[in-house]
Amino acid sequence: MRSNLYTSLTIALMASLSFTSCKKFLDVQPTSTVTSENAYLTGDNIEKAMNGAYNSFIGNGTRPGSNANYYQWEMILQTDIRSDNAHAAGGGEIDFGQIDFNTITNTNDMVRRDWEELYGAISKCNIVIDNVGKVTDPTFSEERRKQILGEASFLRAFHYYQLVKLYGGVPLEKHSNSTDPEVIRIKRSTVEEVYDFIDSDLQVAVNNLPDGFGQPSIDKVRATKGAANALLTKIWAQRPDRDYNKVLQYANAVINGKGGYQLLQNYADLFDGAHNYNNESIIEIPYVAGSPNLSCWGGAFFFPDLDGNGLINENEWRRYGTPSKDLVDAYDKAGDTKRKNANIWFFSVPWADEFWNPCADGNTKIPFNVKQKHANSFQSGDHFYLLRLADIVLLKAEALNALGNSNEAMNTLNIIRHRAGLPDITTGNASQLKSIILNERRLELAFEGQRWDDLNRYGVTVDVMNKLNELKFTCNEGNISTPTPIKYNFNQNSLLLPIPLLEMQANPSLTQNPGY
User: Fold this and answer.
1) Which of 136, 203, 207, 306 has the fewest CB atoms within 10 Å distance of its CB?
2) Is residue 376 part of a domain?
3) Are 350 and 312 in contact (CB under 8 A)?
4) At 97, which CATH number?
C-alpha cells in the first residue's frame, strides 16, 4: 500500500514545478515564471527546479502529447518494436511503421519529438546545475547542495545516454541560458565525446549522491550512488570503445554496494503492480494511479483495460507493440514459462491482426506486452524501471566472459536463470556463452527498452534483423493468404535514427547521419 510519505514526496517531486519542454532544441529558454536573474537564490526555488527536472519522466497531464512521450512509451517503440521483439501494430500510423520496418525518414514525427523531449529534459538539468552553486539561502545546507548537483548530473547523463544511443554523436548542450546563435548553434560531438561527457556527469553524481535517503519510497525514485554506478556500468558496456574492466568495476559497485539491492525471488512480482520500491529496483518512475498529473497513460497503448470477466471488451481498439512470433518462440524454445507468462498475455480480440490472426477468428488469441498490466483508462499507476539489478548482473556476466573468465560468467548468469526456473548453463566456450547471455537478456528484459541496445552492442543488429522470419497474412472471405515474409533490408546506416529535418534547418552546424 502506498504510504502517506510517498504520496507527499511524489507530489512534491513531480508536480511542484514543471518547465514546458523546448519547442525545439535551440529554444533553450525555460518557459516557467521563474526566469529572473536571482530566481534560484533560495533553497525552495532550486528544489522546485530539481523537481521540474524529475518531472521529465512523467510530463504534464495524462493525455498523449504531454511532454513525456519518450519515457511514457516511445522508448519501447525505439528499442523493442524497432528490434525483433515486437511489431508496431496499432492503427497503422506511418511514423510507427517506419520504426518497425526500417523505412525511417528525417521527417518522422516520433524521431523529432523524442529529440525535442530529451533536450527539453536536459535543459531542466542544466538550469539546476548552473544555479545550485549560486544559492545563498542560509537554510540551504551544503549537504543538500551536493545532493542536488549529483541528482541533476545523473539525470542529465541519463538523457544524454538515450540521445547517443538513438542518434549517435549529438550536440552537447551544457547550459540553457543563452539566445545567442553563436552559442546555441552547436556542432555534433563524436559518440566518444558524448560518452565522455556522460561519464564526467556520472562521476559528479557518484561523488555527491548518498547511497539512499532513508526510505525505499524515496531511494527508488531519486538518483542515488547506486543508480549512478548502474548507469556507469551500462555506458561503459554500450560505448563503441567499451571497457569491460570498467563494466565489471561499476557492476560490482552496484552489487556489493550499500544500496541493499537484491533480486526478488519471484520474477512475476516485479511487474504485478504490488511490489513497488522493491529491493531489485535501482530507480523507477513512480506513477500514481488515477492522478491527472502523475499517472502513466503510455501503458494503455500496449494493453487495454479488461472487462468484468477478465476479457478484452468487444469495443476495444488495436494496441501497439504486438509481441513477435520470434520472441514468443524464444521463450518457448528456452522452456521459459515464468518470464513468458509475466511478460506476455494472450487474448481473443475484436480486430484482425496480420501477424497472428488476419481473419479475426474469435478462437485465435494474440499476444500483448503486459510489463505494465493495469491500464486504468490511461491513468495507470504501474511503475516503470529505469534501472534494475538483473540488468546489471547480466552485464557483469557479459564482462566476465569478455575478460576471459567464462566460469565465473556462467555462475553469474545462472543466478538469473535459477530465478526463471531454468537449468544451469555449463558451456565453457566463450563465443557460445556470449550468445547465450544475449538471449538471456532478451528473455529477462523484454519490453524494458533494452533489446535494440543489446543487438547494437553485440554488433549483430543487421544480421539478426535481416534473418528475422516474421510473416504477414491477409484475409480473403475468411481464408488466410499464403504468408508474405517481411523484408527489413538493414545495413549499418540503419543503426542510428536521422537527425530531425527541423533541427537541421534550425541549426546549420548540424550534419546528417549516413543513409538519410
Assistant:
1) 136
2) no
3) yes
4) 1.25.40.390
Are 256 and 228 in contact, with CB atoms under 8 Å apart? no
Domain assignment of residue 115, given as a range: 4-26+34-293+386-463+493-506
pLDDT score, position 63:
54
Report whether pLDDT(46) > 70.
yes
Count CA atoms closer than 13 A to 453's CA, side-chain side.
Answer: 24
Q: Which residues touch 275 (CB under 8 Å, ≥6 apart)?
A: 264, 269
Q: What is the pLDDT of residue 18?
A: 34
Examine residue 419 and state whether it is found in any structural domain, yes or no.
yes
In this predicted model, which residue has the larger pLDDT, 430 or 23?
430
232 within domain boundaries: yes
For the entire predicted model, the pTM comes to: 0.92
pLDDT at 51 over 80: yes
Number of domain units in the chain = 1
Residues 6+ apart with CB under 8 A from 142: none
Three-state secondary-structure class, residue 161: helix
* Residue 450: how many other CB atoms lie within 10 Å: 22
